[in-house]
Amino acid sequence: MMRELKNMGKRTEELEKTPSDSFETLFFPSFMKKFTVFTSFKEMLVAGGFEVSCEEDFQNIPGDLFDEHIANHTFFDNWQEMLNTAKLEYVARKLDI
Questions:
Q1: Is 19 in contact with 13 (CB distance < 8 Å)?
Q2: How far from the centroid of its chain's Cα atoms is residue 29's Cα?
Q3: Which of 73, 49, 31 is nearest to 57 (CA)?
Q4: At what angle are helices 79-95 and 2-17 packed, to 10 degrees?
Q5: Cα 91 to Cα 76: distance, rounded to the nearest angstrom
Q6: Which three-class secondary structure state does DSSP give residue 70?
Q7: Could you report the per-residue pLDDT of 9-37, keeping only the tens digit for each?
Q8: Residue 74's beta-bridge partner residues?
Q9: SS3 (DSSP) at 51
Q10: How far apart (Å, rounded) are the C-alpha atoms in residues 64 and 46?
């Protein structure tokens, strides 16, 4: 039990160093296959007609259009729900729980 807690502590430290805001990090292929009809986050963007090459491009996507795309092609009702779930899945995967 103590060994598992020690290992979890090490993984938590590693997690804190990882840039969790990266879409490739959060929306890993198994997440996308499990919760969407796409195999990658980029594929989802392209299918929605969203051209994103930088953070600013992503920020400029109209929220209502993106939410509609998410609702129509994923198991989520909107972007915030998808993002929250991706963060939880990411943490669970990194902590191996």
A1: no
A2: 10
A3: 49
A4: 130
A5: 19
A6: helix
A7: 444 444 444 444 578 888 999 999 999 99
A8: 36
A9: coil
A10: 17
Query: Token pair for residue 60?
Result: 């400029």
**Distance (Å, whole) CA 81 – CA 68:** 12
Structure tokens at 69: 């795309």
Which string of DSSP letters, residue by residue, matches 17-44? HS-TT-HHHHS-HHHHHHHBS-SSHHHH
Which tokens belong to 92?
A: 């669970």
pLDDT of residue 25: 83
d(CA 62, CA 72): 16
What confidence score (pLDDT) does residue 8 get? 44
Query: Which residue type occupies 25?
Result: T
Pick the range with the lowest mean pLDDT from 11-20, 46-55, 82-91: 11-20
